[in-house]
Amino acid sequence: MAQICEDMNTVYNGEQIAVDLYDRFVKDIKNLELKQYMVKAMQEHLRHLQDIEVYLEFTGVKPNSALPLAGAFANIKLMMENKLKDDDEMIKTAAEGERMGVSTYENIYGKLKDKKAKDLLDSIIKKDLNIAQRLEGMVNTYGN
Fold first, then answer.
1. pTM (2 d.p.)
2. 131 and 98 in contact (C-beta within 8 Å)?
3. What is the set of domains in the chain, with CATH numbers?
4. Which of 10, 37, 73, 122 is the most exposed place for a label (fewest CB within 10 A)?
5. Which pairs from 118-125 meet CB under 8 Å and 24+ separation?
6. Do the beta carbons of residue 79 and residue 96 sit within 8 Å?
């Protein structure tokens, strides 16, 4: 059970990073329609955080945002610092971040034994993949 909680805390950390990044996007994006979609994506990640909190509390564990992150998550913020030049770059960066998160979550999913954790993570993976695909479809639409 300890490994499951550690893995789910890693997912929790990834979702926190996503919320932080989308918050930054929302502040910097110029196109109103794109800004509204980024708000929706951020709200989805906030729901994921709440769902993970409920799961961890059910298992008797408090969410730990201080756990070390997988290398992919640690690099997302660094990647962000250099790419926020225009709306299309922000879309590309958000889509890349979603794909990194999905990849990491799929690796964790393969290790999970707890059905509730697997069901929760499966739902998060599907929703994050949907966000990534939608963002990828927006590339070269909002250039400025």
1. 0.85
2. yes
3. 2-138 (1.20.1260.10)
4. 122
5. 120/8, 120/51, 120/52, 120/55, 121/8, 121/11, 123/51, 124/11, 124/15, 124/48, 124/51, 124/52
6. yes
